[in-house]
Specification:
Low-confidence stretches: 260-268
Radius of gyration: 22 Å
Number of domains: 1
CATH architecture: Alpha-Beta Complex
Distance between the termini: 20 Å
Helix content: 25-40%
CATH topology: Amidase signature (AS) enzymes
CATH superfamily: Amidase signature (AS) domain
Shape: globular
Order of helices and strands: HHEHEHEEEEEHEHEEHEHEHHHHEHEEH
Number of helices: 14
Largest sheet: 11 strands, mixed
C-alpha cells in the first residue's frame, strides 16, 4: 500500500486507473472467492475522479488519497445496502455513512466494495455462500471479517476495514495471510456499525503490512462525539521508533508442547450401539488430527521466537493470570441477544442461513435464560481480568503470543490491542486438512496455507505495538507472499 500511495502522490498512476483495476479484479475473483456483497462502482468512480482532480491541483490529502478500499458490510454506507451478511437483511439501508467511512472519505480513500461477513458477524458463511480462502479455495476464509481478509489477500483492494469481538480480525487474517490490527477497545468509533457486543466490538484495518495498518489507523481513530466508549487517546505512529529499547515478553506456556494426557472413555452403564461406537471413533480421529495440526504449526511459533532472538530481542517469559475466562464469554452472548432482541421476538431469526445448535438463533434464545446474578458475577470477574492482564504491561511493552490460543479470548475480553502478522507458509509435509471445512476449526491448515503470530500491547499503546510488529515483519518478509490465483 505504501508503494501505491507513493505512485499516486507522484502522479505515476491515477486513482481512476487503480480504481478501475481493483473493480475489475473484484468482479473477476468474486465468483471464485465470494468476498463482495456489493461493489460500490458508481461511488468509487466519482471519488476516484475527485481524488485525481485534487492531486492534480496540489491538494494531497495524505497516504490514503486515491487508494481503493473495502468496508466490512456491517458499516453503513449511504445509498447502498448494509446487509450484515444475514438473510432477511439483504435490502437494509441507512441514510448516513458510518464514522469510519466518513473519515476515510476525508482522507481521500476510495470505497470500492462492501465486503462479506458471516451472518451477523459469525464465521464466513453469509446469505450468498461461503467466502473462500485465496490460498486454498476449498476452504472458507474464516470470519467474521471474511471478505475483508480474502479480498485484501487476493489483491482486490488496497486495504479493508474489519471488526473483531472474539476473533473476527485475527482468524481471517491468519487463514488468508493478511496483517490485521485489532485496536484497543474504545480507540476507533463504531458509530454506524452493527452492534454485536457494546463492550467488546472493535473496528480495525486488515492490510498486507503492519505499516499499512498504522497508516489506516491514523485516519480512523479518536472520538466522534457519538460512540461514548471512544476515548481521546493519541496514536503517534513512528515507523522509525527505536524498537530495540522495548521490553518484550512472551507467553512461554503457549510455545510448549501440549501435555500428553491419556484420554479415558467415560464408563457407560449400557453397551454402546454400533452407531455410538462409530461416533466415538470419529471424534477420536478428529482429536488426533487436530493435535497433529497444532504440533506442526508450533514449529512456526518456535521459529518466530528464534528469529526475535536473532534480532537481539531479550524475551521475558510471562504468564496469563489464572482466571475463569470461559465463564466470562457468555457476556458476549447476552449482549448479542439484547442487540438482536427484536429479531428473536418477531421470529425473523428463522431467515438466518445457519440454524444449528451453536448458531445465533439458538444462542440468542438461550441467552435469555442467563441468571442476572451470574451476569453480574461474570462482569466482576471481567473487571478483575482487565486489571490483572494490564499489570503484565507494567513490566513489558509487547507480548508475543501464539495466535490461536487462550490469549485470543482473554485479550478480547480485556480490550487489549493485537497485531496479527503472517508467519510463513505450511510446507508440503503439513498434515492434510479435513475434506470438508465446517467452519468450526480456524486452524485446519494444510500444505501451502499461511500461519500467523500475534503481538499484544498495553491499552492505547497501539502505535508502539505496531512499530515492533513492523520490525519483525521487516526482518521476515512474510507479508510479501501472495496466493497464486
Amino acid at each position: 500500500m505504501v508503494e501505491l500511495s507513493d505512485l499516486v502522490r507522484r502522479k505515476k498512476v491515477s486513482s481512476m486507473n487503480l480504481t478501475e483495476m481493483y473493480i475489475a479484479r473484484l468482479k473477476r475473483y468474486d465468483s471464485m472467492l465470494y468476498f463482495a456483497v456489493t461493489i460500490t462502482e458508481e461511488r468509487a468512480l466519482a471519488k476516484a475522479k475527485e481524488a485525481d482532480a485534487e492531486i492534480a491541483t496540489g491538494k494531497y490529502r495524505g497516504p490514503l488519497h486515491g487508494l481503493p478500499w473495502g468496508a466490512k458490510d456491517l458499516l453503513a454506507v449511504k445509498g447502498y445496502p448494509t446487509t450484515w451478511g444475514a438473510g432477511g437483511f439483504e435490502k437494509q439501508s441507512f441514510d448516513e455513512d458510518a464514522t469510519v467511512v466518513k473519515r476515510l472519505d476525508v482522507a481521500g480513500a476510495v470505497l470500492v466494495a462492501k465486503t462479506t461477513l458471516g451472518a451477523l458477524a459469525m464465521g464466513d458463511k453469509w446469505f450468498g455462500g461461503r467466502t473462500r480462502n485465496p490460498w486454498n479455495t476449498k476452504q472458507g476464509s474464516s470470519g467474521s471479517s471474511a471478505g475483508s481478509a480474502s479480498a485484501t489477500a487476493a489483491g482486490c483492494v488496497a486495504f479493508a476495514i474489519g471488526s473483531e469481538t472474539l476473533g473476527s480480525i485475527s482468524s481471517p487474517s491468519t487463514r488468508c495471510g493478511t496483517t490485521g490490527l485489532r485496536p484497543t477497545f474504545g480507540f476507533v468509533p463504531r458509530t454506524g456499525a452493527m452492534a454485536l457486543s457494546w463492550t467488546m466490538d472493535k473496528l480495525g484495518p486488515i492490510c498486507r503490512a503492519v505499516e499499512d495498518c498504522a497508516i489506516v489507523m491514523q485516519a480512523i481513530y479518536g472520538p466522534d462525539g457519538e460512540d461514548l466508549a471512544t476515548r481521546d487517546a493519541a496514536f503517534n505512529w513512528n515507523a522509525d521508533l527505536d524498537w530495540k529499547a522495548l521490553r518484550i515478553g512472551y507467553f512461554h506456556k503457549e510455545f510448549e508442547p501440549e501435555n500428553e494426557r491419556e484420554e479415558h472413555e467415560e464408563k457407560q452403564s449400557a453397551p454402546l450401539t454400533d452407531e455410538e461406537k462409530k461416533k466415538r471413533e470419529k471424534q477420536r480421529l478428529e482429536r488426533e488430527a487436530a493435535r497433529a495440526r497444532r504440533d506442526y504449526d508450533r514449529r512456526y511459533d518456535l521459529a518466530s521466537l528464534n528469529k526475535l532472538r536473532d534480532m537481539g530481542v531479550n524475551l521475558v517469559p510471562v504468564e496469563l493470570p489464572e482466571l475463569p475466562y470461559g465463564a466470562m464469554t457468555p457476556l458476549l452472548e447476552a449482549e448479542a441477544a439484547a442487540a438482536f432482541d427484536e429479531l428473536t421476538r418477531t421470529g425473523r431469526d428463522k431467515l438466518l442461513t445457519e440454524q444449528g445448535e451453536d448458531d445465533w438463533p439458538n444462542i440468542f434464545r438461550s441467552a435469555r435464560f442467563y441468571p442476572a446474578v451470574e451476569y453480574v458475577q461474570a462482569n466482576r470477574a471481567r473487571t478483575l481480568a482487565i486489571r490483572e492482564v494490564s499489570k503484565l504491561f507494567e513490566n513489558v511493552d509487547v507480548i508475543v503470543a501464539a495466535t490461536n490460543s487462550e490469549q485470543l479470548v482473554v485479550t478480547n475480553l480485556t480490550g487489549h490491542p493485537a497485531v496479527i502478522v503472517p508467519n510463513g507458509i505450511r510446507g508440503d509435509d503439513a498434515p492434510v486438512p479435513p475434506k470438508v471445512d465446517t467452519g468450526e476449526d480456524d486452524s485446519i491448515g494444510g500444505p501451502g496455507t499461511p500461519v500467523s503470530i500475534t503481538f499484544l500491547g498495553g491499552h492505547y499503546q497501539d502505535a508502539k505495538l505496531c512499530a515492533f510488529a513492523k520490525a519483525y515483519q521487516d526482518a521476515t518478509g512474510f507479508q510479501k507472499q501472495h496466493p497464486n490465483l
